């Protein structure tokens, strides 16, 4: 492993060379289908976005009763749903693959004819929908307007092709996926609108932390007319009798002062004698209007739509080239590269082009020399996502570690589920510790390790108003959290703390802190306190040590709230001990009982591919000597059962790329089975040949090639650097140093 | 008359000399009772304000069911009502004596104990209320906090005396008298909060023009804690089930980013070990945050409460010294000087200290070298207010004329009812023309007369989308506006246009434009078309020339809407022909019939002292030879009947000083009976001696002294400069040149 001391010049040159090689690499983009995950609650959107972009331009079709899935009529976490049909615009800050509604604001739409500002009235069906990495377009049926979108990192760029006649571009700041309200808008000139929108309360948590997102919109053609609209509260009572305009939308024609309110917007109107295109660029900042302008100027300036799109294509192409594949059909390749595309959306860039970003907790504006990342869904991503980033994009992974550390420095606490510098306190456990340990143990050590370790210890030991580990005192004293403790999901939480403590132990070991290593190693297997040999489950226990009497192993199915578990039931959490697989086997009574229990999980349909606790379970067969073929077969089965080149092609929320990381690893034939342990467990890959291009600034080898011989779904034998290996689970170092892993496969009917 | 070419140095020096004379002048302030007009719909407020201040600090006691007159439960146009008891703070931009709710925002309140942001809960009764010119104080019962307020022109300054313990200062930006919504707030530091509030839609008109008012608040002590609160819309439907905070106020502790929304506020919290005072200065601007800060810095800077108050006292004293009186009791003197105080509130200063102000209609920021005035309630003020300003504060009157002209230059139209650079289109007629003509004919000619005349003609002649004179085509063609024309109050409007046309004729005459003089003179008496000799009323007529068949001379009593008149009935408009009293007499059949009709008006209780059309009617007896004693008696009766040194001491809305101007003139013993004609009609004064200090830059004499001999209410004889005069109505020039008017009075029982 080399350190991060070199500049990134080498890598840039490497990619530049690849690109000019032409045809082959450029075609990787053809394997990105941004519609994958836009149905079946994948919660991705097909909007135009640059890699890890702050801005994106997503079609917004979740408002209005015409839509099957309407944002206010159900739990809905995305600005776009593939089966919906009624478009009310294009939102300019969006989240991808998350489980809660947030952002989805700064909504623009081109219309024609008389100005109509009510989205329920101006909304339209659409057709001829296309999407690529960094590009989206559709024909808006009602207006015969073609809307195209692309984006640079901090700027959404739209191109609207209008027919002749009266046309409008609306910027609706009332409409949004977020449940937060409040906006400011200011028409600066016939070619410029600036403003801000309040967002926040992700997952209906922490609404107090709602914060502003700023924008500036520039238009390629000066409007013939412009204005602002505002829909006020409706007054009740006597006074309303004099307010002929009570609750009604007001059009402030030609208004050039600031306007604030909960439901406002601005418009540009054109009178076109012939069909015309208008390009609209919207620069975003979470810091200030000035920064939004600077982002727009420096990132896009006078470049036109085509030029921005070309740059973004180039950026995406560079991203995708880290893995080259041979074999597999077009759908499989599309599933793979789209998944890779989906891992490059979050965590996303928060800092402005001048380095400024809002700090966590302080209310101050910080400044970074590098990149400040945001959107850390760590309960999800600690399991495989950051491992994949360490492998394929190590510089980014280190920057993410640095961003997380900066949050600790600002806020006094590591992030749990951080979004735009607010801690949303979504999900449970102490996942940041795991990410630091995993990153470090995989050889990416160029971060402030002492501070990271200090932060990890703080959340693991501080029993006074610790926002990350509720129930910690009981956990330390009793080894588990009692079901009567008011901590939600006490079994799940105990398991999560165990995994985090294991990670801290591994880190302590690396840093030579033997006492900590002992202590946290011991803490990490306390889940055993919750294993009831009579039922064969990890189950809720009362603080007094007795079992919770109303235990039902199925309670919690389908995300139902239940006394023991978070987003799952006793089956789904039974095997979530990735750091102590041998220990769990022992508890269960050895290999064959473990195998039988695992079989039962799948047979009883209690395995949940759509949520993180379970989704590595298929790999557990690799830990039962002689039954490794079941792991390969199961993983191959799951890939083809749940991942598709189709809108419903992700089994559930993509979880900021975690589901995608699963399929990337799984299709490549290996998986980081134990977070914070630099190992990979191996299964039969999907493709004939996978070539990982490793960043030579971090790895001693420039690539790892995995070849599959035979079109099987189980492993017959393996050869690393020409030498046969018998372990299905191996350390990362020898694997990467091996450069070439050849996997002989055969066909098994197991699990089919 | 001298011109305005001199600097104002002379005047300043004059006042400076007066002040050091000490005692006598200083005591004038003791005759200001800011509670006069705070009941009986006088609509004044007792808040602290500097002369013509942009900012003021008014107690705000019109919210909450505890209050007898609640702002949302009835038509209520003032932030304070004397008989109300429940105070919810102090508003920092306020209107005085107007008929519609507007402004009354940026509401602060000191509280103690745990933070409570709902004004219905934090509101309190109060006691020990005192008010002076530029000062207000009360004890807030619930909190045992003494709240004091003073103000400079653009800065409201408060001093809160807290007991020991936890204390808070709230800035509530949701609460307000205005019906407009929307605000921004930003806690800059523990000693500074900045923000803005949307205001507008005065008289429920023109809500589209709602505009921002900016502020910055600085605190003398840094807060121990601070934050922002926000109360969002309540979500309905399914989504609300996840929003435990749905519709509830959120406290954003320590939040230092911008927050926008319809219902927000900010707070500072202190933990005092002993009783402490905190001073809060709030700078205001209608242009920008930066200007609000500059206004605060340059106008107040580091001055403390006492120092600001001392300066404002001094400024008020200078204002009041223009008239010195002898005789009269304390109540009469108080009525007089409080009225003078009330004439110095509106029109108020709109421009920031750097000269910037929002232009009318353009959306641009203009800049003035002098003073930009706003709040022109011209339908009211053309009748006597501007005449009084020309007499007592000629420099201000010229600046007002210039402000009105600038509006025309910006907007293309003269103002009708202008407020903070929005035209509210309240009331009727074309009053600006009258003000220009009156000002000019009274000798104040140093304004852009050509442009003024052009503007006057434009509104009098332009029949295409003329916002000032609806129904103008019919008026020109038929001499009246038909009741079937959709113009509201067609009789009243015809009368108003007549008066305006008379004014234009007088101006044309002065400018040597004979053709215009002839034309507008002719137009000015077209009211006669509406005089029905059979009923003896000016009454509504159909466009076809027939009388409106459902005529009822009482329809319109008590401001009820009716087909013929604005805010009045046929009786109340019968004599509103101030420019053609002789003509009306002739229509009615001569002096005695005119007198009988006037007697009937009063006897039938159809005279309305509370509204402008009527309130000079008492003076009309001066135009009936031999019956002049009735004028004196009636005016003296009305003064004592309707004006009191008490909260109910103004007969109705003060109308930005118009009611006050009436009583000032009436108590001095003369009145500008005909707008745009530089005459005064004379009655027996209230005081033994009145000395008007004239501005020598505008007038050839430094003073006019009016002496009353005998304690009568009717005039026996008059002597001007030692020579007896017999006319009860004389030109302004000989009156002012006369310097000394001695009025012999006698007691008559007429009208008692």
TrEMBL record, chains A, B:
Residues 31-285 form the Glycosyl hydrolase family 92 N-terminal domain. Its cofactor is Ca(2+). It comes from the Bacteria. GO terms for molecular function: hydrolase activity, acting on glycosyl bonds. Its EC number is 3.2.1.-. Pfam families: Glyco_hydro_92, Glyco_hydro_92N. InterPro entries: 6-hairpin_glycosidase_sf, GH-type_carb-bd, GH92_a_mannosidase_put, GH92_N, Glyco_hydro_92, PNGase. The keyword Calcium applies. Residues 291-743 form the Glycosyl hydrolase family domain. The keyword Plastid does not apply. Keywords: Calcium, Glycosidase, Hydrolase. Coiled coil: none annotated. Monomer. This is GH92 family glycosyl hydrolase. It comes from Autumnicola musiva.
